[in-house]
Amino acid sequence: MRTPLVRWSVLSVSLALALTSCAKGTGGGATATPSAGQFNPSATFQGSISVMGFGATDEIGSTRVDLAKKALGGADVKLIEGDLDIQQFLSSVAAGDPPDIIYANRDQIGTFASRGAIIPLTACVEGEQIDTSMYNKNALAQVTFGDEIWAIPEFNQVQIIMANGDLLKQAGLTIEDVNGSDWSKVTAAAKKLVKAPGGKLKVIGYDSKLPEFLPLWAKANGADLLSADGKTAQLNSPQVVKALEFAVGIYDEQGGFAKVKAVRDSADFFGKGNQFAKNELGAMPMEQWYVNVLNDVSPKAPLVFDTFRTPQGEPLAYSSGSSWAIPKGAKNPGAACRFAKTMTLVDSWKAAAQARLDKRKEEGKPFTGVLTGNVKADAEIEKMLTSGGATWDAGVKAFYEANEHTFSLPANPADSEFKKAWQDAVNRVLNGQDEPHAALDKAQEDAQAALDKAWAGWTKRTN
Amino acid sequence: MPATHSKAPFWRSMRWRDTRAALLFISPWIIGFLIFTAWPVINSAYLSLTDYDVINDPSFVGFDNYVQLFQDPKVGLALRNTFLFTVMSVPTQLVVSLALALLLNSATKATGFFRTAFFLPKMTPPVAIGILLLMLFNGQNGLINAFLGVFGIDGPAWTTDPAWVKPGLVLMSLWTVGSSIVIILAALRGVPQELYDSALVDGAGWWRRTFRITVPLISPTLFFLFIVDSINALQSFTEAYTAFFGSGNTTYSNDAALFYAIYLFQQAFEFLHMGYASALAWLLFIVIMAITGVQMLVTRRFVHYEGGQP
C-alpha cells in the first residue's frame, strides 16, 4: 500500500531537486580581464543600462545622470535606488544577471575585487581615456587593489571640528582648545564644557566620536591602522593604544561613554533641535556634510569651525566616499564605463554645482560647496561658492582645507572583517568590558588572521 | 467457507483516489516547500562542508567549518547570550501573557477594544521595535528611566551597560505578547464553567481556581507557547540587530546583544563566509532540536490533556 505513495514522493523530490539544481550559481573561475578595445570614447550605446545602489535624489545626482545619459548616445539608464544591497548584488553576480554598474562605498571595493565580483577598470580607464590624475589620490588609492583600478571614485568625506561658540565662550575657551592640536587642552575643555547637574548629563562637553573616528585619532598620533600594502594590521601599536586611551578618556571625564551615547542618541541630529542649536554639545569632530545640514536647519546656531588638527598643528582628515564599479558578467561594460566617466568628469560636477547654486539662490541660502573626489572639479566648484556669513564661510573654508590634508586606509580583501575587528575592540573598551591595550591586542589577532586568509585567497585566485 | 472478495488494486480504490486528490490539492505547498525550504536546507548541509563566498564555486573543506565552530570564542559568547535571553524572556513572556489573558477573560465591558489594544503592538515591524527600544530605554532621556525616576530610582544605562542590555531586550520582547494573549484567551474560553461553579461551591478562592482549574486545563496551550516562544527566542535577530548592530547603530555594537542568529548573519552577509555560516546554522538547528526534546520530556508531566496523552 505504501508503494505508490513512496513512488509519488520520490518523483516529487526528484522533480524539485532537478528544478532547483538549475539555480546553481554560475560564479567562479577567474575574472575575465577586459581589453581597452572594448571601451571606445566615440562609441554610442543603445538599449539600457542598470545602475544599482544610486538614487539621483538631488540636483547633484540628477544633473550628472542627465549628462551621463546624453553621453551614452541613446541608451536609457535604469536606477535601482537605495544603498547597495550587498546580498542582492552578489546573488545577481552569482546568478549571472548582475546590474551593469554599481555604486558602492570605496571601502567595499577590495572585498568585491578579491572575490571576483567586479572587473578591473584599467582597460576602461585606458579605452575611455579617463584622466585619473583628476581624482583625489587617496580616493583613488582606496579603489586600487593589486596594481589595478577597480572603481572610479566620487565624493569625499572629510572631518572638521564643529563647536558651539556660545558654550566655548562661557567656559573661557576658543576653537583652538578643541581642534585637537593639544590633547591635554581637549580633555580640559571637555571637563569645562560638560554639564551634568545631579549626575544627569545635560551638555556633552566634547564627543570624540568613537568608535568610528579611531583611524583619525590614531593617524593624528602618527599611526596607521593598516600597513600601506594592506596586508599587515597595526592595531595594537603603542600610538593606536594611546590614541584610544585618550579618546575614551574624554568620555570618562564626562561621566562615561554610556551617558554621552544616551544623550547623543536622543538628539534630533538632522532637525532644528540638533545638539548645537539646543546648546547640548560643546564640540566634536564631524564629517563636512553636516555643515550643510546645520546651515539648512539651524542657520542661526552659534557655530565655530576649524580643521581637525594633529598635535603638530597640521590639518588632518580621514577620507572616505563612494565609487562606481562594473560587476563581473555585466552585459554592457562599455556603456557602464562611459557612465562612470561622465558622472565624475569636471564638467559634470560643474554643471551639478551650478544646479545646486541656482537652487540655493532661489531658497535664499548660500552655496556651501561639494567635495567631489575630483581635485580639479573641487577647485572649480570652490570658485562658485557664495557667502553665508562669517560663521558658515569659516566652516566651508575648514572643510576645503581638510580636503587637502587627507589620508585613507588602503584597499584590502578583508575590509569588513578588519573594520569589525577594530570597531569591536573600541566598543568593548567603551562598554567597560576591556582595557584599550587588551582589546586592541585581541583585535590585532582577529584582523591579521582575516587579512592573512583573505590575501591567501586572493593569491590563490590570481596565480 | 468464507466468501472470497476480489480485491481491487490500490490505484483503483477509493482510498487512493482520495489520497491523489489530497496530494493534488496540497501540491502547491509541497512544491513550494521542496524548492524554498527542503532544498535550501539540504544545500546548506553541503555548503557547511565547503569554503563558499557566494561568487566563486564552493571548495570542499570537509569538517573544517565544524572544527572552527569549537575554536571560535564568539560562537560560545553568542550561544551564552542567546541561552540567557531565552531563559529570561520565555518565562517572562508566558507569565505576562497569562496574566493579561486572565484579565481580558474576566473583563465584561469593551472586551473587543481591549483585545485589539493588547494585540496592536504585535503589528509593529520588528525593525521599528529595535529603534523604539533605543528610545524607550535611553539611559538619560528614555521613558523607562523617567518612570523609574518617579519612584526615586536612578535607572541603568539599558542600551550600553552590558549587564543591562539583555534585561532591556527581555522587557522589550513583551511588546509582542499580543499573539500569545489571544491564543491563551481562546484556551481560557474553552474551560468549562461548571468546574468553576463547583469549585466556588466548595469555597475555592481566585488563586485556587486559577492554579487548580484554569492552569491545568490550559496547560497544553501554555506548553505549545513555551515550545514556540523558546524556538523564537533561540532564533532572535531583528530587534537586537537593529538596536545594536544595524540601522540604530552602524558602528557601535555591544557584545552583550550578540545573539547567535546575529553572528550567523554577520558571517554570511557581512564577511561572505557562507560555508561557515551554514555550519553555524546547522549547529543552531541541532541545539534547538535538543532543547525542544528536553523541554518536551521534562514538561510532559505538567501538561494535562483531556482524555489522556495525545
| Fraction in beta strands of chain A | 5-15%
The radius of gyration over CA of chain B amounts to: 25 Å
H and E string of chain B: HEEHHHHHHHHHHHHH
Strand content of chain B: under 5%
Determine the fraction of residues in helical runs of chain A and give it as a percent range: 40-55%
Quick gist of this model?
The complex is a heterodimer of chains A (463) and B (310). With 463 residues, chain A is α/β, with parallel strands linked by helices.
Question: If you had to describe this structure to a student in words, what would you say it looks like?
Answer:
The complex is a heterodimer of chains A (463) and B (310). Chain A is 45% helix and 12% strand. Chain A is of the alpha/beta class and 463 residues long. Chain A has 2 domains: 34-157 and 319-405, Periplasmic binding protein-like II (D-Maltodextrin-Binding Protein, domain 2, 3-Layer(aba) Sandwich); 159-318 and 413-462, Periplasmic binding protein-like II (D-Maltodextrin-Binding Protein, domain 2). In chain A, the strands form 4 sheets. Chain A has a 5-stranded mixed β-sheet. Chain A has a 4-stranded mixed β-sheet with strand order 8-9-7-10. In chain A, α2 (59-72) runs antiparallel to α14. The radius of gyration of chain A is 25 Å and the shape is globular. The N and C termini of chain A lie far apart (59 Å). Residues 1-31 of chain A have low confidence and may be disordered. In chain B, 67% of the residues lie in helices and 1% in strands. In chain B, α2 (64-71) crosses α14 (274-299), α3 crosses α13 and α11 runs antiparallel to α14 (274-299). In chain B, β1 (50-51) and β2 (59-60) form a beta hairpin. Chain B has a two-stranded antiparallel sheet. Chain B folds into 2 domains: 11-47, no CATH class; 66-302, MetI-like fold (Orthogonal Bundle), CATH 1.10.3720.10. Chain B has helices at 14-47, 64-71, 73-106, 111-119, 126-136, 143-150, 162-173, 178-189, 193-201, 206-217, 219-234, 238-244, 260-270, 274-299, and strands spanning 50-51, 59-60. Chain B is mostly helical.
